[in-house]
Design brief:
The complex is a heterodimer of chains A (258) and B (227). Chain A has 258 residues and is an all-alpha fold. Chain A has 10 helices and no strands. The longest helix of chain B is centred in the C-terminal third of the chain and has 16 residues. Classes of the chains: A mainly alpha (258), B alpha/beta (227). Chains A and B meet through helix 1, helix 3 and helix 4 of A and helix 1, strand 4 and helix 2 of B.
């Protein structure tokens, strides 16, 4: 049954046109625009890593937030509570489906980067890149779940996402070197997982194992911390007065047996 | 007398100092169609949520005829929880998977046929009309052949033709042997469908002996609200 749910989540996530725009089309346009303006192989490699980073961020974080918000408001989680199918399994199926699609989007971006700018990544670097992307995708998906738990409407999802994404992107090495920015901005960036994620991607592109491994560990630690927060604040009911659901069936008031 | 499938007694739900549901009792027997009626904001949907365990009750008890009742209960909520990009048939397959059942194409089409949606099987659920979406929501509640079906305002905000179609569907459900509990504020609908009526007003249940009493109560309440 989980396979059916996973397959359906793939299809429904693929129809998420707005997130697809921000995760695929926008990074491609950004890569084309900046790549042709800054005609240097070093910068183009940084740019490719940067657009993969923001694509992952938008796809995993904002995409999940909007999808979960829509499902919660339409009563999907309420109905799931009335079925034998655990909500945790549903969330996992959704996350796995989105991760797989996110990786496919990243592969397209890599291919475009390779074809348009002649960027090549060594085989071991590609394996490292894949691992970093999976960990990053997991981390930002958890962040998406956390954001949606605090948002009361779609406008608040945008607001909260921007509040997190803007300092994350500007406080990272994604599009420029942090050595050229004020120190406080670089320090602020290090408070979020995105800077480490980009560092890890850049290290992977060079097949540089040590900084890559450190980045994977840090992003994974961020992911676990955010996952705990997201699980503690998870709401299955759009009604804010009904709280206390913690990714498991509530005991009090939960129907009855007999 | 048919056996009792559901017994809810003394249900209470408070938000702060306000009691939204205040001591409601409800009993549903096998093959029975029970209507829960009352004006908007009377507490009908909250009562269903309490019975289904979707909201925490502050007092009262709910007892189903079997412990693993979820496997035999179908629910249509007021919202239509369909997944964007999936056809009507795929949505049904997904809901069947939630009930740990594999729905074949033939079974899915038969269910859509029962709900008058056979021609819309491959249409994206979000593109269906309001009436069709309600019927699909009811179909989704039936994917696992439930013994007890809850329908929350199944005909709300629909045109007369769509209401008639849903009434026919509820009738067919009852004929097939399922027990149905539905909420409504439509007296005509209630009169045509229900074996028994539970009236809720300001969070309290009133169980009129005769439908006529119930209707006159309702008329009086609606008239009062209009004034």
């Amino acid at each position: 049954m989980i396979r059916t749910v996973f397959r359906m989540m793939l299809v429904t996530s693929l129809k998420d046109k707005i997130t697809l725009f921000y995760a695929l089309l926008f990074p491609v346009v950004l890569m084309a625009g900046l790549g042709y303006y800054f005609d240097s192989p070093e910068y183009r490699e940084r740019l490719l890593v940067g657009v993969i980073g923001i694509s992952t961020l938008f796809w995993a974080m904002q995409g999940v937030s909007f999808q979960v918000y829509g499902q919660r408001n339409k009563g999907v989680y309420k109905l799931l509570k009335l079925t034998p199918f655990p909500i945790v399994s549903f969330v996992l199926a959704l996350t796995l489906a989105r991760t797989l699609l996110g990786l496919a989007i990243n592969a397209v971006l890599l291919l475009i980067g390779a074809l348009a700018f002649g960027i090549s990544i060594p085989f071991f670097g590609a394996v490292q890149l894949l691992a970093m992307l999976v960990v990053g995708m997991f981390c930002f998906t958890c962040l998406g779940f956390l954001v949606v738990n605090f948002a009361r409407n779609e406008g608040q999802i945008n607001m909260l996402s921007n509040l997190l994404q803007i300092p994350m992107v500007f406080g990272s090495d994604a599009f420029y070197s942090l050595s050229a920015v004020p120190e406080w901005l670089a320090r602020a960036g290090k408070c979020f997982p995105f800077a480490y994620f980009v560092d890890g991607l850049q290290a992977a592109a060079q097949a540089d194992t040590r900084p890559w491994g450190l980045s994977v560990l840090i992003v994974f630690a961020f992911a676990l911390a955010i996952l705990v927060l997201a699980a503690l604040t998870f709401r299955w009911d759009p009604d804010h007065r009904e709280t206390g659901f913690r990714l498991k069936k509530s005991a009090a008031g939960g129907g009855a047996g007999g | 007398m048919n056996r009792v499938l559901l017994q809810a007694a003394g249900l209470v739900k408070r938000y702060g100092s306000k009691s939204v549901v205040d001591g409601i009792d409800l009993e549903v027997r096998e093959k029975e169609v029970v209507a829960v009626i009352g004006p908007n904001g009377a507490g009908k949907s909250t009562t269903l949520d309490l019975i289904l365990g979707l909201k925490r009750r502050d007092a009262g008890s709910v007892t189903y005829w079997r412990h693993d009742y979820k496997a035999s209960v179908g629910v249509q909520l007021q919202s239509t929880p369909f997944f964007p990009g999936l056809s009507a048939l795929d949505n049904l397959k997904l809901f069947a998977a939630f009930h740990k059942r594999r729905l074949t194409v033939e079974e899915g089409l038969r269910l859509l046929e029962l709900c008058g949606l056979r021609d819309a099987a491959q249409t994206e659920a979000s593109r269906l009309s309001g009436g069709q979406q309600k019927r699909l929501a009811i179909a989704a509640a039936l994917v696992h052949d439930p013994k007890l079906v809850f329908l929350d305002e199944p005909t709300a905000a629909l045109d007369p033709r769509a209401r008639r179609e849903i009434r026919d569907l509820i009738r067919r459900l009852a004929e097939s042997g399922a027990s149905v509990v539905f909420t409504s504020h439509d007296m005509e609908e209630v009169g045509k469908l229900a074996d028994r009526i539970v009236m809720i007003r300001e969070g309290r249940s009133r169980r009129p002996e005769r439908r006529r009493n119930c209707w006159s109560d309702m008329r009086r309440q609606i008239w009062k609200n209009c004034i």
